[in-house]
Design brief:
Length: 311
């Protein structure tokens, strides 16, 4: 059956594509765990606004109407990029996995797609989710970047005049097990006044940096030295640590989720997933898959970001 399996060309557009597109975009840890603010339905641009006041708005009561203090309206623009995924896969290999899942012990209680096209899309969606996770952080960080689809958070804060941005002050300018405590203190020391002590302020780092931190605190006896679980709640000086796999090694960002935005458009007519059986056109055993969607990132107020990285 694997050698002669035929897939009728299938397409999912608009709302029909939503389950697949959402799986591809939103499955990475950063978005799935709510580490940033997600803005859905962004067709092209979204204006991000933040009100602040330079002086106290509260005054002693009088009979007259008089205003005290001024409000400042800051805004930035989030622009999403049109993205596509084009894949060509040999259906023979995937058909075997699908058949095994369908006939495996206890398969009735498992969520196994009855349609081979859905099985193939699910496989591709997992790979796309991983790429999106890395792109929202590392997108276009360097010339010839591995993730060139759009500018990620690291690029966004690095090209603008944010509050603080520098390499690590520790010897060698890199993050290691022995330097990570010093590095994190450097981030905390440069927090803007409004972010100091706020429960909304988080420290963002990748899995390697988080592992350095676990090793450092275990060696110092701050936590159980033989703690085996990687899921215990990570904090530094009272600030939650958000572990985002897509971040660059040695990079730490202090920010608030309400100031970090990811815009997506996954439920418009533009969103599409299409599966085409190439055996009908070139007699091959290949399947072509195409996805189209929109994603982009932006920071609301760059002055409320602290960014440190390996030199």
């Amino acid at each position: 059956m694997a050698d002669s399996l035929t897939i009728n060309s299938s397409s999912y557009a608009g709302e029909l594509a939503l389950p697949y597109i959402n799986a591809a975009i939103l499955s990475g840890d950063t978005l799935a765990k709510g580490y940033v603010t997600l803005k859905e339905g962004v067709k092209y641009k979204a204006v991000l606004k933040k009100l602040s006041n330079a002086a106290s708005l509260v005054q002693s009561a009088t009979c007259d109407f008089s205003q005290a203090g001024d409000l400042n309206l800051d805004e930035s623009v989030l622009t999403v990029s049109d993205l596509k995924v084009n894949l060509e896969l040999c259906k023979k290999e995937f058909a075997r996995d699908w058949e095994a899942a369908q006939t495996g012990r206890g398969f009735i209680n498992d969520v196994v797609p009855a349609n081979f096209s859905d099985f193939l899309i699910g496989y591709a969606a997992a790979k796309v989710a991983e790429n999106i996770e890395y792109t929202i952080w590392q997108g276009n960080t360097t010339v010839g970047s591995t993730y060139p689809a759009f500018n990620g958070f690291e690029k966004t804060v690095n090209v603008s005049a944010a509050y603080y941005r520098a390499g690590w002050a520790s010897t060698g300018g890199t993050m290691t097990v022995t330097s990570i405590i010093e590095n994190l203190n450097q981030v905390i020391d440069n927090l803007p006044v409004a972010m100091i002590g706020s429960p909304e302020t988080k420290l963002y780092m990748n899995r390697q940096s988080a592992q350095f931190y676990r090793q450092a605190v275990a060696a110092e006896g701050y936590l159980q030295q033989f703690q085996a679980s990687s899921d215990f709640n990570l904090q530094f000086n009272g600030y939650d640590i958000y572990v985002c796999p897509g971040m660059s090694n040695g990079t730490v960002i202090a920010a608030q989720p309400s100031n970090m935005f990811v815009g997506v458009d996954a439920n418009s007519d533009f969103a599409e997933v299409r599966v085409v059986d190439m055996s009908l056109t070139d007699a091959s055993d290949n399947v072509r898959m195409a996805m189209r969607f929109r994603v982009g990132v932006q920071v609301g107020v760059l002055g409320d970001i602290v960014y440190c990285y390996n030199d």
